[in-house]
Amino acid sequence: MSVLEWITSLLLSLSIIEWVAAFLSLGYLILLSKQRVEAWALGILSSAIYVYLCYSFKLYAETGLYFFYVLIGFYGWYNWKRNSNDSLKVNQRTVFFHLTWIIGLFILGIGLGRTLDKFTDAVFPYIDSLTTVFGIFASWLEAKKILEGWYYWIILNAAAIGIYYLRGLEVTAGLMIIYTIMSFVGLSEWKKSLK
Questions:
Q1: What is the tens place of the pLDDT at every residue in 29-78?
Q2: Hey, where are the domains in the chain?
Q3: pTM of the complete model
Q4: Separation of alpha carbons 133 and 117, rounded Å
Q5: b or e along 23-61 (b: 16 or more beta carbons within 10 Å of the residue's beta carbon)?
Q6: Radius of gyration (Cα) for the chain, nearest Å?
Q7: Judging by beta carbons within 10 Å of its beta carbon (0-12, 13-18, 19+), is residue 14 exposed, middle or buried?
Q8: Whole-angstrom Cα distance, residue 126 to residue 145?
């Protein structure tokens, strides 16, 4: 099968709901990198769709993560809108801040993974849990316009490629490739606004 035939069969086999979620997510990321408050509305909508999709594919920690994304979307929208007069600027945190959080989140992620492994039929419980807890943290960093959030997203999006692909969510896996690339763009854009 040629690459073109594979892409065509893939496009025809995937659900419209996954495509809608993917396009909304892409719009969210583009607007977020440009620090546009409208990004949050697209993020809320795409995350709500992904709650359904992840639950359907037994990615329970990811389901919780996308539910959190809906909530943080409202917070981010409120926070950016409230501070639309440029009082909320891109800022940074210390290495100690991040190391402390990384250690704590790793411990939390392993604990959540162990719980999911023992009590559910979750697929990839440990990877799913680690990406979930770090995704929550990275989302909070975005809402606060903390630059280093983009570094977390580069790693998280790259890891998500495999998770979604192996679960049959090919469009979402493809979206994660784009997200990984766009996270570098977002990092670059936010760095410019620091100067």
A1: 999 999 999 999 999 999 999 998 888 888 787 888 899 999 999 999 99
A2: 24-194
A3: 0.80
A4: 16
A5: ebbbbbbbbbbebebebbbbbbbbbbbbbebbeebebbb
A6: 17
A7: middle
A8: 28
